[in-house]
Amino acid sequence: METHTLRLAQLFSISLQTKQLSRGKGIL
What we know:
This protein has 28 residues and is mostly helical. The chain has one helix at 3-27.
């Protein structure tokens, strides 16, 4: 059904979170 799209959305959000975390570490 729409489990594939939901999975993609989760992966996308996770990638965004990791990017923000790495960005924060770079600032610190």
